[in-house]
Amino acid sequence: MSSTEPNKYSIEFYPPRTAEGEAKLDMVHAQLAKLNPDFFSVTYGAGGSTKKGTQQIVLRYKTAGSNVAPHLSFGGTDENEVRALLSRYRETGVDRIVALRGDLPSGVAAHHRFASELVAFIRKETGDHFHIDVACYPETHPDSKSYASDIDYFKTKVEAGANSALTQYFYNPDAYFRFVDYCQDRGINIPIVPGIMPITNFENLSRFSATCGAEIPRWLRSQLECFGDDKEGIREFGIDVVTELCDDLLSGGAPGLHFYSMNLSRTVTQIWNNLSISNGKAD
Ligand code: FAD
Questions:
Q1: What is the number of alpha carbons within 13 Å of residue 28 lying toward its C-beta?
Q2: What ranges do the domains of the chain cover?
Q3: Contact status, residue 147 vs residue 181, Cβ threshold 8 Å
Q4: Pocket of ligand 1 from Cβ distances under 6 Å
Q5: I need a labelling partner for 43 at 20 to 30 A (CA). Which of 118, 130, 148, 164 fits?
Q6: pTM higher than 0.90 for the full model?
Q7: Which tens digits make up the pLDDT trace of 26-70?
């Protein structure tokens, strides 16, 4: 795996639900902006829970001088709402979007439209204005019929016009490298940037991993369990593990890293500094 393109480093936020959370995120954004990521991205509640919040955070940090990519999905809405949102983003200088199917909350009876349909819609409405990222799954999306079919559907997103992909997180670098090889064999040649989940709260991580289909390897789980309630111990051990993972990925040719920050700055900053990512800044 090699490319002449410089690596891309990005950091993901979710829109806070309270004024207090927003004030905290403003501080986190200010801290992380010092790392000079290529872009921040902001998640979108496909069920409608955080739609306004996504727009507000995107526009606020865009105005503050950051490159920001909103996540977007059809969710349960009609095309007019998505069309209006695309225009608004375009008018305010946003030129990158993360296009997803999204997960509707249980009990919401709406038709799920696949991410490939959204990518095609964005291209139809706005031509080449937006750089479009899509999601992909080195350990297979939980709804998939098979490893192969998941990659075939990933390919439909690329054929619809996606420019690059961000992966679900994982802790086994072989899962990523094998996935990239398989994708290349299937004719998928866009950059596939690994998603990196720092380890801060083991309980939350376990719960989330069970639903999104990301595996916490047995060796890692059993070591994390040894820390019990020692949150700082977990964080420090997690920083070592995730730094090593990122190192392996970058030295194996990964074209960048996408950090799931969970709206926290300290751990991402430490991993970033451990990796000596200067990203265009003088060291
Ligand atoms: P798709 O690519 O549409 O695929 C969904 C499933 O359907 C897969 O199993 C696929 O194999 C299958 N499939 C695809 N096309 C077809 C077809 N034509 N026929 C039959 N099966 C098909 N969720 C949010 O709600 N908000 C966010 O902001 C958000 N951000 C994310 C960011 C990243 C980087 C990642 C990795 C995930 C994110 N998610 C987010 C979670 C994501 O929405 C879920 O994983 C969702 O279940 C799938 O989204 P997708 O875009 O990958 O879907």
A1: 23
A2: 8-275
A3: no
A4: 43-44, 46, 71, 98, 100-103, 114-116, 135, 141, 143-144, 149-150, 153, 157, 166, 168, 195
A5: 148
A6: yes
A7: 999 999 999 999 999 999 987 666 778 999 999 999 999 999 999
> What's the CATH class of domain 8-275?
alpha beta
Q: Output the CA 112–ligand 1 centroid distance in Å.
A: 10
Instruction: Quote the percentage of the chain above a pLDDT of 70.
Output: 94
Mutate to test the pocket of ligand 1, among 51, 72, 100 (most ligand atoms within 8 A of CB): 100
Ligand 1 geometric centre to CA of 211 (Å)? 13
Atom of ligand 1 nearest to the CA of 168: 36
Compute the distance from residue 155 Cα to the ligand 1 centre, in Å.
13
